Amino acid sequence: MARQLGLHEILTELHGAQNKWVWIGLALGLNKCVVDGISEKNNLDSLREVLSKVLDLKPLTWRKLIDVLRSKTVSELCLANELAEKFCKPLLH
Fold it and tell me: What is the value of pTM for the model shown?
């Protein structure tokens, strides 16, 4: 069973994709109305709020986050590949 990830751990790793917080939230299954209701103080705070709302609904795995980063809407392939190498290496072989 996959280990449940914490908010701080995810934010640390997704820092480079913080400007894509809207697309990350939608790709993780948040309703557009929920995402639209998040204030845009700054990208990191908005990403924190998106991830908080997602984690309130369901646990996240690195595999799911990597899939979201690789999606066409988020398109953070370099970051996704770095995270896959770091956290999912046994799954790649």
Answer: 0.87
